[in-house]
Amino acid sequence: MEKASEIKLACFIAEHNPAFNVASHLTNLMEPVCPDSKTAENLFVSRPKARATILNVTEKTGEENLIKNLRENDFALLVDESTDKSIIKYLASIARIVNTNYEVEDKCLTVISITDGSTKVL
Q1: pLDDT tens, position by position, 42-87
Q2: 116 φ, ψ to 5°?
Q3: Which domain of life is it from (predicted)?
Q4: Contact predicate 7/23, CB 8 Å
Q5: Percentage of the chain with pLDDT > 70?
Q6: Is 7 helix (H, G, I), strand (E, B) or coil?
Q7: Predicted TM-score (pTM) of this structure
Q8: What angle do CA 80, 87, 59 make, to 5 degrees?
Q9: Any idea what DSSP says for residue 8?
Q10: How many Å apart are CA 23 and CA 7, to the nearest integer?
Q11: In 3D, which of 70, 119, 77 has the Cα closest to residue 99?
Q12: Nearest 5°: CA angle at 80, between 75 and 83?
């Protein structure tokens, strides 16, 4: 039960996008809010644990859902090269998906660092 609660808390953080530092504060809040709950008493999710849970558990599900979405719907592939302040070049690829309700959604596929952003190399 505690593992499921940790995953749900990490999913809450991923969905609502607060700072990861809020994870330990939320778990510390659970015990006084739910004093009769054994799960709340034993629940603790730190910032690193929340991040690891999101990356290792929810990432796989998100990837599977994205692949399913790409197989079942029309999409366009958008690619953009960018350079940050430190002169590192990045290449981002985004899928613009049109779902069955004709709603358009943009989903990030990947962002990779590159050494040369010229059209010849890309």
Answers
A1: 888 888 888 888 888 777 788 888 999 999 999 999 998 888 777 8
A2: -140, 120
A3: Eukaryota
A4: no
A5: 98
A6: helix
A7: 0.55
A8: 50
A9: H
A10: 12
A11: 70
A12: 160
